[in-house]
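ok so for the tutorial part 2 we go from a plain amino acid sequence to predicted structure tokens. step 1 is just haveing the sequence, like this:
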Amino acid sequence: MNTAIISLEKQYWQRMENHELDGLLDLTYFPCIVSSSKGIRKADKQSFVDMFEQGKELVFKVLSISEEEVIELTDQTAVIAYKVATEKTYQGKTWQDSCVCNSTWVLKDGAWKCAMHSEIELEK
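step 2 — the prediction. this is what the tokens look like for a chain of 124 residues:
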């Protein structure tokens, strides 16, 4: 299961990077929880779509995903933690940053869905 969860997490980032909303919706459990330096948000499907649309001006590229750790809690629930490095561009400014992330994945109706994702920016 570890390899599958790591692969799903990478797919999620790739779909974010490519602005593939439909693909993200397929991989997301609703309602979901997202937490970051901007706060905590519980999102139903529509508020997730709204959040996605608001972030369209931010362009980013995943430079690396590393240090992945997965724990299988049950045969239908797993958690993953890892480090991600990205390059972001917003309103003509480009910068790189790194975060540690964790996600909770649940098996629902035969498909894995991300129910919670959290990001903590690392100090530079």
